[in-house]
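lol ok so funny story. i was supposed to be doing the assay writeup but got distracted and ended up predicting the structure for this chain instead. priorities right. anyway since i did it might as well share w the group, maybe its usefull for someone
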Amino acid sequence: MSNKIITIGREFGSGGRELGRLIAEKLNYAYYDREIISEIAKRTSLSEKYVQHIAEHKPVIPFPIHTGRTFWAVIPDYGQEVQKEQHDIIREMASKSDCVIVGRGADYILRELKPFRLFVYSDIESKIQRCRENGSNDYENGESMTEKELRRRIEQINKGRADYYEFYTGQKWGEKSNYDLCINTANITDIAKLSEAVTKIC
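and the output, tada:
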């Protein structure tokens, strides 16, 4: 019997990471999120911050500067290396036990294993409020930003996630037909209670 796998795609500020962690706790599943980045960093000897940046942005296609030399050719491109390691690590994790995997395009990477695919989203006002109230690294100290700065940051992160997902999967990030359950957390203040309801569906 294959392991039970839940993948969670989420907009930044939607509470998707917290929801995934609580679902894993309630179902006694392994939980993978930043652990994936840490493992990639170990295997590639790159910093976690650099890996995180690469893992959430589509690669920049380099083009030569026509001055007789192509300077970009000597700059290392770690994008493919990171993507390969991420693909291998996610598959390894899924093979070990029942698990919840947050982000990283895991729904697509594991598609032949038919995971239960969630997507968590919210409106911008709710995202801003959640970032303000959380005050953790998950929200990059959102409480210290102006509303304009925070709004811009949220939009930048989500655009990066969408571009990355669409580049590597050929599918639209957040498109409801790509998921088994889409959850709008705009009017949900109790993520713990939501996680209880979701576990009954999963």
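Strands lie at 5-10, 30-32, 99-102, 116-121, 181-184. Residues 19 and 188 are 11 Å apart (CA to CA).
back to the writeup now i swear
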